[in-house]
Structures
1.
Amino acid sequence: MTDSGLQLAVKSAIAGIDRESVIIVPFLEDDNLADVPEVAALGGQQLADAVARREVRAQSYDVTMVHGSSPLAFVGAGSRADLDALKLARVCAAASRYVTGRGFTRLAIVDRRLVSAFEFGQAAVEGAIGGTYDPGVRKTRDRTPRRLESITLVSGQGSSVEEGARVGRITAEARSIARDLVNLPPNDLTPRSFAERAQALAAENALACDVLDEQRMTELKMGSLLGVAAGSAEPPRLIVLRYGDAAARIKLAVVGKGLTFDSGGLSLKTAEGMETMKGDMGGGAVVVAAMVAIARLAPAGLSVTGYVGATENMPGGAAMRPGDVLTAMTGETIEVLNTDAEGRLVLADVLAYAAQQGATHIVDFATLTGGAVVALGHTASAVIARPAAWGEQVVEAAAEGLERTWQMPLFEEYRRAMDSEVADIKNVGGRAASALTAAAFLADFVGDQLWAHVDIAGTAFADKDSPFRPRGGTGEGVGTIVALARRLASA
Ligand code: BES
Ligand code: MN
Ligand code: ZN
């Protein structure tokens, strides 16, 4: 899964590129290609005419192929003002998806110096690899795997391009692990098989891995997580992956919601509402995948521990009922009024466990609320943090990791919306600001560590195909975690 045999090289001029490679050129609005005379020369008069007649399209993600002495693929990159590293990665993904879908296996990507050298290396490689992702994890026929043999980056910008490319490659390969995990069907990816896959990935990448079973959870008094698991025939698992020096001053805990299927429980979802709920383990998937990336990048001077609370939420005969009161590991009692607000019940115990294990910095990833989708759509993940300064670090790391986030507030009123008459807290806070009341719920279960919550409900699963990615798991969160570990590392 991780070692693809892909060749990566950086060359300073197009002259050195082999004739089989398709040369990919991001093409902006009002572009005249003045900065890339070699491209203009390759395309000759035919290209000059096509540009003049506006046949080369600048519309984002449109691909125009021109066959000169080498195949050229111009990919629309929109306006210069909107072009950042994330956009460039998507542009390169669209180009890669287009050309590898037509049998090309060798890509050369031209640096037009629209972003920094590091960002170019990272975005081009991450995009190009990501663009070949095939979601057909259980197809037995008509599968169109895209082959990618080599990526050559054409840049005069030097060694930062190579470092960016290294990060981009490792991140992209981890992202496709996460995408596979999300795309696997819920009868295949159960809490137990999820844990087995995590163990296998840990063994391949020299990570330590512990899997806690329901007996261990009972000893730890994780009544909140176990309450969610009670309605399912599949037993829950708590997956723990460890990287780095446990004695390091900075101990980062990365926590993921791992609902391998969310039916809603007795507060049953509609059939339509369940259609993408195999993806309710998207947070857990990015935690496992990012741990693999971190092991391969080997940042120094910190420990990183990944925790995934893996369970189903099902309406079996032993299921928790609306009205039940659960007791979390912290001793806090929770009145369950809606069994479909299960993610926060799982995270309550996993966050408390991570805090108890001595984390200094915590960040969690969860497909937690429809409210996050209402607020930010499928465009960005919501970050809610205490203190907000730590949230700002997560937002900055997300941008470095080619992901979009937006920080939202944690006002005290959000917690009061969950005051219960019979228990310490109830698990729903009403329709208003539901992404934020959910975050306020989680805040009760962490101590005074730095803590940030990233609600990826809108971003973990793409509802439809787009030029730069197919429908299905996106791996959103992998980039943020990798960048966060790199920021917290000491040189
Ligand atoms: N897994 C869902 C949230 C979700 C919704 C993720 C859409 C991805 C796409 C979560 O467990 C849930 O059901 N949340 C409910 C809570 C409500 C019942 C209080 C929600 O936000 O609607
Ligand atoms: Mn739910
Ligand atoms: Zn859920």
2.
Amino acid sequence: VQTRAEGAVTASVDGDTRLATLTLQAPGPVNKIDVVLRDGLDGALAWAISQPGLRGIILASGHADFCVGGDVDRLFLERDPAVMMARVRALHACFLRLERCGVPVVAALAGSALGGGLELALACHRRVALGDPSVRLGLPEVTLGLMPGGGGTQRLPRLVGLGKALELVLQGTVVGPSQALQLGLVDDVQHTADEVLGAARDWLVSGPAAGQRWDLEGHAAPPPGPGTAEAHALVAEARERLQRKAAGTLHGPAGALEAMAEGHALPLDQGLDVEATHFVEVACGHQAKDMLRTLWYHRRAADKHAGLPSTVSLGVQENIHRVGILGAGMMGGALAWVACRAGYQVVLTDVRPGAREKAGQRFHALTEKRAGHLGEGGRAALAARLRVVADAADLAGCDLVVEAVFEDLPLKHAVTREVEPLLAPGGIWASNTSALPITELARASAHPDRFVGLHFFSPAEVMPLVEVVRGRATSDETLARALALCRRLGKTPIVVNDGYGFFTTRVFSRYLLEAADLVAEGHDPARVESAARAAGMAVPPLQVFDEVSLSLVRQATPHEEAFTGRRRDTAGFALVCKMVDELGRHGKAAGAGFYDYAEGKRQGLWPGLRDLATPRPGHATQGELGHRLLLAQAVEAVRALEEGVLQRPRDAEVGALLGIGFASCTGGPLSYLDRRGLPSVVAELDALAAGHAERHAVPTLLRDMAARGERFFADGVVPA
Ligand code: NAI
């Protein structure tokens, strides 16, 4: 065996088999696609193919993962399109040299291959993966505001067909090995890392052709063929899906779509050029930077609980084994499943037999839908962790109780008094309230230091965020244990201080009420809805107002005023009151709200709505309406920061994107303000405050920052 080290890649050639192995082993903990790896690959490849009688190449990794993707820091910092273009072209050229090196090349994927890492594997002629559930394969770039830039938009459609490729790339889907095999992303799955290498070797020894299958004589490419009606239809459908999902606001998936649509009918080299053009435009733009900052850096910091008390730093244990859930409604039912999936023993109770029964059925349905990969034994073990009980006394001995009964302060006090004494020694009480101050709730507690808010979002089995709320007396230890629980549940936490509506509910209710205000001011309700979508909001405000229910907001707002001293007596709130109190339009569940409903199905906006408005709309463009809706939320986020509800700006961004569907194209409410420029936002708010109401009053923090020329997030600096 002869070996040669070329920086991050080591090549070896077996004298007997004449097979080369190129092992990616970048100096850091993982392989990522950067200049060092690229140069290493080029050097190692050049050396290997210069060896006489070479029969094939295995591309493998010396790290646990195969390759986890691009160098995010470089992508985040680089703004010069010319520099970015040069790097992309160099990467394409490197992958092409590998693909066209003259001998067959196989990727041995004994660990995850993501983004640029999978694109490298796609430039090989065959892929063998390790059949371990920890192995993740996919092109998740669009979920971070980017698009594939290492040939993925060109090679994937040629490999698996345009339809599947569009789906995978535009959703950023990441799959395990067995699904990857089904999809055709990999060709073979083996049980051990040695078997992966063995299978790769066997394939090379069998004397396969040296080239991509789509270039081979007589190989039928997966349908549809380039330029066919079917191909056009797939592209049109994908375009429509993007439109439906984020109203075309996201540049990453849009660029990927165009690159796949154009490239499908072009020779590979030209297709790669098309991809490069779109990639550079996307990756150098503001949107990619703002989304990367929140969805990569800030989310990872939140997942690491950076800057927060931890069980390790405090020298304590999570010590939560049995979880009690009080209230088996919409939230409690789903939370029971989430906790069982994470391995906790769960006791679920509700006063209503119907709720208990329904929660049981729901548990079963969730298991069927989301735990198929566990196999029969795994699913049975999951079900065995749940105990549904009629008597709250059976919650005795739980290490944590999550209270998810109706949003009603006296009721929550009553159940706290009744059930808290049943906790195991040192047990924690958590409320899933969406707005009631934790300090108020904890008045009924004998141990307010072990009382915390765990605000989950619906549907809890899907939504990644937990807003952890610290009451005035909540201890560091309780917080650290709650965070450890969040980690086991697989949730991303933001930790906020107490205050009515915390952060997320407070900002979200501003969204709803700003929409009501716009309608009350005479703006066309349909335009308000479409403006919100066009601005990138996940759901239109009047639609979701109906789902939350007008009566809930109607009831909660006076509470909020009482708790906070903030006045909410806007024209929009008056309109909501009128709809609830005089017209009986309580929302979706009641069959009438901003929309009309027939058999629970949304029909159209209620025609009578326009008559409730002042018929004096100053004309506003769709962009202006959308901006008002985002601005209202962003200003509320600044207030939450100013009042100390938010401890750090990053939580505003993570919370808004992951919890309440704030326009992800902006990176978050504070990023949005930064991008608009704080001085111009202040001037605009001053003008609005003059015309409308105190709700547009500029927070002092914002005015001061604008005056000092500051921003919430420095541009061009990798967040700490
Ligand atoms: P829900 O109305 O679906 O369920 C509440 C359940 O609590 C009902 O099944 C009821 O029978 C039960 N319950 C009432 N009194 C009880 C008692 N004394 N002992 C045991 N069970 C009792 O309500 P949902 O939507 O699940 O909300 C629960 C809590 O979660 C509320 O505080 C709400 O603000 C909060 N929340 C709700 C979200 C949502 O999207 N629905 C999101 C985040 C938080």
3.
Amino acid sequence: MDLLTLNQLDQVDFVGVIGFVFEGSSWIAAAAWEQRPFATREVLHAALCAQLAVAPLERKLALISAHPDLVGRAARAGTLDATSTGEQAAAGLNALKAEEVALFDRYNAAYRERFGFPFVICARDNKKDAILAAFPQRLQHSREQEIATALREIERIAWLRLADVLEP
Ligand code: GUN
């Protein structure tokens, strides 16, 4: 779809097209719709991120928590949606050895135990080795640092998803 068309949609249809870019948090697109029209994809993305930035902490945590674990149970069972399946495959996470799967399990569990939410990294920007290197580093951060990092990664994930559905 092009931006001209998106700008003309009513709120329900607008959310229907781009509501998915922030995993499970279509309220972000619904709120940003009030600011249409958007001149560029960059301006639209900035408006979406601005809604997220001013949201209460509980909403930010709910957004982070909506992300499926990388190489998690859903990924292995094949029950992820197409978007997440594609993103995990882009990082090469769909073809791991058993030892690597076990390593992801341990890291995912340790991260969740420490911070109370899942590890979020933009899987399309990071290959398996970069992700496995990020786990031990990020496990040393404070919870505040990790909330900020997760939200930054989520903004990047949202940008790539927007670019998938909107012509430049
Ligand atoms: N969980 C952690 N990173 C990601 C990602 O890039 N995409 C999806 N769908 N889930 C994730």
4.
Amino acid sequence: MVSVRAILDRKGSEVFSIDVAESVLDAARLMNTRGIGGVVVTRDGEMVGIFTERDVLRRVVAEQLDPAATVLESVMTTPVVSCESNTGLDECMQTMSNRRVRHLPVVDGGQLAGILTSGDIVAHQVREQQDTIEHLSNYIHDPR
Ligand code: AMP
């Protein structure tokens, strides 16, 4: 069974986070700078929520809130659904699909150990399919 660890081994464990007291504008700038679609929101270093581009659309733009004057605490999603690094990828995909989320923070023993996104899973599956195609192609050309 392929677990989240296989993806984190490749991707690394860095998670971009931001304090609840920071503004939506700060979060948007962080997401843009890092090229990511969501950030973990922390209070005193502990994960207390998550804020993604979907929240910018639904809770900020559509509500005509001022991004510079809106603190993340008021627009983040809480509680956060998470997984562990030994959770199976199938289970993570099920969770993402059922909960309609594209981000799953990875928490091991209470500590953030990385973040899994739907994009990471797609990239992993593409790599696996390429490996299979290469393997079968080699076999067809030299079946010994
Ligand atoms: P996403 O598809 O990840 O951009 O998120 C869609 C909605 O689900 C947004 O309101 C997010 O704040 C929320 N969300 C995303 N990931 C999680 C998560 N792991 N736990 C709880 N809510 C989440």
